[in-house]
């Protein structure tokens, strides 16, 4: 029996993780859950899974949760609050594996708290590695923690390279669906509404990552994530558009052969793989009906129209605090787009300006990263205010 903590249990990844856990009650037990502010869902999860400890980041939600919890007959967890409370859940001694599935930079400190206890981390929160890849991988080594990718492309690469020498890898190819605006040019994207950008063709995900998929920033963040997870230079990390999202990524070996990992687009696959690693669970994802597949197609990304992808490659090459700045600026720009304050096409324009203003620092410790993150948020807001 493995004891599981889920950071971000009320989100898309959190809910899929609980789906997997509920199908295998003899293998997994939930010991800790955390949420932002969706306490109506959190209460249902508490009733169903009886965690020992829960934490929420939002103060009003915390007070509401505390007042409602005494009415629950079946469960009575300890309730914690804020980043510190979430980090305590992440570090709880009973946990065997922590699924890191909070969205955005707020996931960084709780993930580090889990790493420092030497646990197995199922990492969905790609922002952790984008912001602080060198620091995080050094902490993983120092504390004997294990980082298992939950992001579908990285889970695919992890599965494909298993048992192969690193020197035999020529490059890895991250597949991208292309998002809802595949094939469109900049001019055609100028009046895109948040509602249309939120219509991902293949995956049902949280709002922030769905917009990142539409701009291709998601793939850019994943290039940076892959660099740190697999310790590969940027030149060995490629991106290919694959609109069907059946091939989750590909490894090209030096002998000219390839290994790819395939399944229907369903995050329960990579989640279950991380939860049960190194074993596999039965019947997690519905089988592919091969005869009915209409085709698997691949094309080069349009780096000009979807320039967020180019910006992410530039940030990775620039190094130091630049990836953290890219990430923070993107978070602010995406929120502004969802709030109707800036246009879809402004997202990369604003991020690029912020990157141009940034004086790179060596990413030696977490405070330098947090400072860069803070600086980039402020600068992005200034540029948005100035231009609107
Ligand atoms: N969804 C997917 O299929 C995939 C997601 N990922 C990555 O996984 C992560 C989660 O994505 P996803 O599940 O889609 O996101 P969601 O927006 O669906 O869920 C986010 C979770 O984070 C919580 N949260 C939000 N803000 C805070 C905060 N300030 N403090 C603490 N918790 C907070 C939310 O709580 P509440 O709702 O209660 O406020 C919710 O539980 C992201 O990093 C994403 O890039 C990677 C691959 C695939
Ligand atoms: C499911 C998953 O891992 C997402 O990160 C997904 O890859 C998003 O789709 P895109 O390929 O459109 O970015
Ligand atoms: Mn992904």
Descriptive notes:
The chain has 388 residues and is an alpha/beta fold. It has 2 domains: 149 residues, Rossmann fold; 189 residues, Rna Polymerase Sigma Factor, Chain: A (Orthogonal Bundle), CATH 1.10.1740. It contains 15 helices and 11 strands. The chain has a 7-stranded parallel sheet with strand order 4-3-2-1-5-6-7, with helices on both faces. A 4-stranded mixed sheet has the order 9-8-10-11, with helices on one face. Helix 6 links the parallel strand 6 and strand 7. Helix 4 packs parallel to helix 5 and helix 5 runs parallel beside helix 6. The longest helix is centred in the last third of the chain and has 22 residues. The chain is globular and about 55 Å long. 47% of the residues are buried. The mean pLDDT is 97. Bound molecules: NADPH dihydro-nicotinamide-adenine-dinucleotide phosphate, 1-deoxy-D-xylulose-5-phosphate and manganese (II) ion (MN). NADPH dihydro-nicotinamide-adenine-dinucleotide phosphate binds next to helix 1 and helix 9.
Question: How are the strands of the largest sheet arranged?
Answer: 4-3-2-1-5-6-7
What's the CATH H-level homologous superfamily of the largest domain? RNA polymerase sigma factor, region 2, helix turn helix motif
The name CATH uses for the topology of the largest domain is: Rna Polymerase Sigma Factor, Chain: A
- Output the CATH class name of the largest domain: Mainly Alpha
Please give the radius of gyration in angstroms: 20 Å
- Estimated share of beta-strand residues: 15-25%
- List ligands, each type once: NADPH dihydro-nicotinamide-adenine-dinucleotide phosphate, 1-deoxy-D-xylulose-5-phosphate, manganese (II) ion
What is the domain tally? 2
Low-confidence stretches: none
Helicity range? 40-55%
User: In terms of structural class, how would the helical and strand content be classed?
Assistant: alpha/beta
How many β-strand runs? 11
End-to-end separation in angstroms reads 54 Å
Binding site for NADPH: 10-13, 36-38, 125, 127, 206
Domain DXP reductoisomerase C-terminal: 262-378
Family: Belongs to the DXR family.
Binding site for Mn(2+): 151, 153, 222
